[in-house]
Amino acid sequence: MRRSGSSIIVFVLIGLAAIGVVMQLVTSPGAFFQNVLVWVGGAVLFGALLYFILTRLRGRATAGGSSNDMQKYKKAVKQSKQKYKQPKARPVNKPAKSAASIKKASAAKRKRSIKDRSRGPQLRVIEGNKQKRKKSSI
C-alpha cells in the first residue's frame, strides 16, 4: 500500500506524542494527572461558554419575528388537519351489505369526491414582509 508524505508525518507525530505521554506518566504521574485535569476542565469551560453564546444568539434570531410566523404556520396546519381528518376505521365483524346498498354508497362516494375536488384545498395566507412591485414602464 502506498502512503503519501503527509500521512507518514502524521503517524510520526502521533507516535512521538504517545511516547511523550508514556514518559511523563512514568516519570511524574502526579503532574500528568494534573495536566489531564487542567485540559479537561478547560475543554468543559470552553464548551459551556460556546453553548451559552450560541443559545443566546439563537434566541435573539427567533425573537425577531420568525417565531410568530411559525405559530401562524402551526395554527394553519392544525386547522387543515381538523378539516381533512380521516374517519375512524370500521370494525372488522360487520354483516355483509346488500348489492343495492353497495351501489348507492359507491355512487354517493363518487359524487362526494367530485364535489370535494371542485372545492379545492383550504389554503391559509401567512402574511410576511413582501415588497410591492414597482411598475417599471407605464
Structural class: mainly alpha
Fraction of residues in β-strands: under 5%
Mean pLDDT: 78
Q: Main β-sheet: number of strands, strand sense, barrel status?
A: none
Shape call = elongated
How many DSSP H or I helices?
4
Unreliable runs, pLDDT <50, ≥5 residues? none
Number of strands: 0
Helix content: over 70%
Give me the Rg, rounded: 34 Å
List the helices and strands in order.
HHHH
Keywords: Membrane, Transmembrane, Transmembrane helix
Please tell me about this protein's structure.
- This protein has about 140 residues and is mostly helical.
- It has a domain at about 10-60.
- About 70% of the residues lie in helices and about 0% in strands.
- The protein has four helices and no strands.
- The chain has helices at about 5-25, 30-65, 65-85, 100-120.
- Helix 1 packs across helix 2.
- The longest helix is centred in the middle third of the chain and has 35 residues, at about 30-65.
- The chain is elongated and about 95 Å long.
- The model has no long low-confidence stretch (mean pLDDT about 80).
- Keywords: Membrane, Transmembrane, Transmembrane helix.
- InterPro entries: SA1362/YqhP-like.
